[in-house]
Structure formats: structure tokens, C-alpha cells
Amino acid sequence: MSPVGTRLPKPRATRPHMPGYGLPRGTRGLLPWKWAEDRLKKSHIYWIATTRPDGRPHLMVVWGFWKDGRFLFSTGSQSRKAKNLASNRRCIIATEQANQAVIVEGVAEILADVEVRRWFLAQTEKKYKFDMSAFAEDILNLTEPVYTVHPDIVFGLDEKKSLKSATRWHFRQ
Predict the structure, then answer these.
(1) Dihedral sign, CA of 112, 116, 118, 123?
(2) Number of alpha carbons in the 13 Å side-chain half-sphere of residue 4
């Protein structure tokens, strides 16, 4: 996996597998990757779905950032999200606007890069107008997690453009 700061190659766009929905064949009408990235960058709140060790799903909101083709977020090490990710790193991230949905399926890992963690703290204060000073020492000393989610597949759907816009981007070629 490429480190944060290294931009991932542009993903390959295809139609999602949606039997019975009458999706057109071919690539006409697929959304451009820039469309998805714009929404991933601009979303204020994100949904994260993880799986509990007993298999039950867990859905919650988080603050975060799309940076260099990955999603970054933090949560307390004792939170349900962190406990779930400790046993199963697969997760789903979704933007807040369902009518222009972007859904990221990927794998989370704890970010060890202190410079990116510094960037994360500064950007959290800027984007969310939230004083992170009480958390800074633990985040910078790696005692509290900051996660980066590496996408495998991303789905996009623009309701205004109908199902003809349904797009799936593959990151693993």
C-alpha cells in the first residue's frame, strides 16, 4: 500500500452489478472519478460501518478527510469503532448526501506517520472548528488512533442523473 502523501493511480470505472435494475451497458453516463473525489472532500460528516466481533453491524458518524486517495479519521481507542476495527479492518465509509452518494469499501489501518497526524489535527480544527489540543499529545505520541482507509471499491450514484450514473471504481487492478 502506498503511504499517505503518495497519490494513488486513477481507479478504473465500470458499472456496478445490480441485477434487475436495468442499468445500461457500456460506459456512457458513468460518473468521472473527480465527481466522487469532490464529494469525498466536501462532505462534512461521514458514515462509517464496521462489524462487531460477533458479526453484528455497527454504523456511526465520524469527522474525517479525503486525502491522497484515502479517508482519514480518528476515534478513541476504547470506542466501539476502534474495537471493531481491531478484530476486522474492513469497513465502509459514506458521504452525508444520499442523493449524491459516494460509498467507499476498504481496509482501515492505524496511521503511523506523525507528520500526517499533525496535518490531521490542524485540518480537524480548521474544518470542524474544534479545539484538538486536549487530544494532540495522545494522537502525536501514537497512543490514540488515527485511521487511514485504503479503498478497494468505491460506488457513486447521482440521483438527478438516474441509475444511468451508477458507477463503481476499482482500485485494485
Answers:
(1) negative
(2) 25
pTM as predicted = 0.91
Q: What are the pLDDT digits (tens) for 10-61?
A: 899 989 988 888 888 888 889 999 999 999 999 999 999 999 999 999 999 9
Compute, in degrees rounded to 10, the torsion defined by CA atoms 32, 43, 103, 140: 110
Q: What is the DSSP string of 112-123?
A: --HHHHHHHHHH
* Each residue's pLDDT tens digit, 111-121: 999 999 999 99
Mind spelling out the 3-state secondary structure of 39-86? HHHHCCCEEEEEECCCCCEEEEEECEEEECCEEEEECCCCCHHHHHHH
With CA atoms as reference, report the closest residue to 71 among 51, 50, 88, 48. Answer: 48
CATH fold of the domain at 29-170: Pnp Oxidase; Chain A (2.30.110)
Cα–Cα distance, 15 to 54 (Å, whole number): 33
Separate counts of helices (H) and strands (E) for the chain:
4, 9
Q: Taking all residues of the chain, what is their mean pLDDT, rounded to a whole number? A: 93
Instruction: For residue range 133-166, list pLDDT tens digits in order.
Output: 999 999 999 999 999 999 999 999 999 987 888 9
CA torsion through residues 44, 38, 103, 111, sign: negative
